[in-house]
Amino acid sequence: MTPDQLKQRLPNAAFAFRGYNVTNLGRSGELLEDAAYGAIVRACLQKAGSVCSEVIARPVDLVDRVRRREETTLATYAEAIALIMAMERAQMELLREFFGVELTAAKVCFGYSLGEISAVAAAGVFDCYEAMRVPLAMAADCAKLADGVTLAIVFSRGTTLPLEHVQRICLEINQAGQGVIGVSALLSPNSILLMGQAETLDRFKLRLGEIGGPRVHLRKHTSVFPPLHTPIMWERNIPNRAGVLMHTMPEGFGVPNPPVLSLVTGTKSYDELNAREHMQRWVDHPQLLWDVVYATLGMGVDTVVHVGPEPNIIPATFSRLRDNVEAETRGSIHMRALTAVVQHPWIRPLLGSRTALLRALRVEQLNLEDFLLDNRPS
User: Fold this and answer.
1) What is the C-alpha to C-alpha distance for residues 266 and 321, in angstroms, rounded to an integer?
2) Degrees (nearest 5) of the Cα angle 336, 339, 343?
3) CA-to-CA distance for 255 and 286, rounded, in angstroms?
4) What is the largest CA-CA distance in the chain?
5) What pLDDT digit, counting tens, does each position of 68-126 carry?
């Protein structure tokens, strides 16, 4: 996609900000070393590094980390937060400075996990560097809570997963007092992320038959993540402590421009007063990614711009949805095709009543760091 094409598509574009992952550098080193882009990238990294140093009370040099291509780890979780938010800020500044693309011209924006804070800041509600102070202050405890916690995906090769039933099983397991398990994200109607302490995921796996029979599976992830968006966060009172910090956070009274689709509510629910409330709920509330993906399609979004280093979950979700819809419709949008498909039965009942899903076939995705490097000034 050329810069002119991107400008033309802005009125129907969504900007999607990525969250924390096991890898967080992406192509940041190339952007930092670029003759045209380097000054802006360096300034954003230096500012974020300074804030991070102040909050965690030890020296942080994000510029040097990026220059050396040194990935973050769970042990440097605070630096990962600062790095991701700094690079999201830098990419948006580069897009505006060199290509005249303003976020305010887009239809909507949203972010997965940490990305929601970046999205709300980019939409003018908070200053990015002030907003990052809250997750930075909680970073050490979030990383400690990851000890003994495992991430898993529950998915169905047949029908949709009953979210309320999944949540009920989690609550019943928690009642036993042998660890806490909770839903972290709703990725699609047939896939849910769980995070659980100790043997709670194993106990959940024993009850998969109650959810959907032999076509429901649980697959554990080998990497370790902080248990954000689950009730495990209650153990160190992180939601309330974050709320206390937000009392004195500057700004936060404007309506986002463009509107922000919140993964806390799945809707455009930010107003002049509730940004702090949403940010507090963000800490332990499951990420309603599927609701937001469907909302973008219902709004007529035909372009999704992925912001941040090496975005993964959001682009994968849109790509998987497109592939599934394409397989289900067999290249046709006629109703007889919709009733004949058999490959992805979970999506079949949705296509008839939720026709916005068909727009997934027309959505074009753009990785912003690739776009910037492919179109760098000569």
Assistant:
1) 17
2) 120
3) 23
4) 63
5) 999 999 999 999 999 999 999 999 999 999 999 999 999 999 999 999 999 999 999 99
Model confidence pLDDT, tens digit, residues 251-277: 999 999 999 999 999 999 999 999 999
Choose among 182, 184, 203: nearest CA to 193: 184
3-state secondary structure of 175: helix
pLDDT for 137 equals: 97
Decide if 52 contacts 62 (C-beta within 8 A): yes
- Tokens 């309506």 locate to 255
Report how far residue 100's alpha carbon sits from residue 98's, in angstroms, rounded to the nearest whole number.
6
Alpha helices (H) along the chain: 3-9, 28-33, 38-56, 62-67, 77-99, 114-122, 128-131, 133-145, 163-175, 200-205, 209-212, 238-247, 275-284, 289-298, 313-329, 335-340, 348-353, 368-374
Domains detected in the chain: 3-142+236-309+362-374 (3.40.366.10), 147-224 (3.30.70.250)
Please tell me the distance from the alpha carbon of residue 150 to that of residue 165, in angstroms, as a whole number.
21
d(CA 364, CA 252): 32
Please check the confidence at residue 243 and state whether its pLDDT lies above 60: yes
Cβ neighbours around 235 below 10 Å, total:
13
> Going by DSSP bridges, is the β-strand pair 303-307/191-197 parallel, antiparallel, or unpaired?
unpaired
Q: Does a cis peptide bond (omega within 30 degrees of 0) precede residue 258?
A: yes
Question: What are 115's two structure tokens?
Answer: 């990305």
Cα–Cα distance, 61 to 53 (Å, whole number) = 8
CA–CA separation, 265 and 269 (whole Å) = 7
